[in-house]
Amino acid sequence: MRTYLVVIDDNDAARVALHFAARRAQKTGGAVEILALVAQQEFVQWGAVQAAMEEEARLRAEAMVAQAASALIEETGIMPSITVKQGDPVAAVREVLAEQQHVAALVLGAPESGPASKLIAHFAGSEAGSLPCPLMIVPGSLDDEALDRLS
Question: What is the 8-class DSSP label of residue 39?
Answer without folding.
Answer: P
